[in-house]
Specification:
There is one protein chain. By secondary structure, the chain is mainly alpha-helical. 64% of the residues lie in helices and 0% in strands. Helix 2 packs antiparallel against helix 4 and helix 4 runs antiparallel to helix 5. The longest helix is centred in the middle third of the chain and has 36 residues. The two termini are 30 Å apart.
Length: 195
Amino acid sequence: AVVSTQSGPNGRAPGKICDNIMDCSNGKDECQKCNNGTISSSRFLIDSRPVLVLTGLAGITMIILNAVVGFKCYRKTPTTHAGKIDRILCLQVFFFDGLMGLYNCSLALASNVLARKGDYCLVDQAWRSSASCSILGIIFFVASHGSLLAIAFISIVRCLICTRTILVAKKSVVMVVSGLLISFNIINSIVPVLP
């Protein structure tokens, strides 16, 4: 492909605008309307104020509700074997959902911090390649997939218990399988960010 060297209306070659390479010393060639159709803009990581506020409030709410319900679940003393297994698995769901709340709060905080550094487009590449962004990605992956895996595992265990199949769910087996699923989830979330 041939890149045109003719100047556009703003004095820059059209092929050099929004190409993730700062051709201008102040980086303004990357601060055009490059992110059309997303929640980001050239000025903010999260451009919409209502979305930013809702993200933060949703995160705080998720943390509080999952902590309260998780604490109640932990304090409840199940009398049956199935109840004890169910409590272990439900606590995992509450933990991962609370972790998603932490992710939402962190994302809202990161958006505010990046907004104070000036136009987001000037720090976009540095932010996306930073350890903080990678950690947020790992938290998101672990929280979302961990919750889904825990819910799927709860469904399987409850199905086995309700149908009273030959397989009896033992607490130790549930703990080992849960540990393997969590380990798989964490490894699977870290692999994409490895160099």
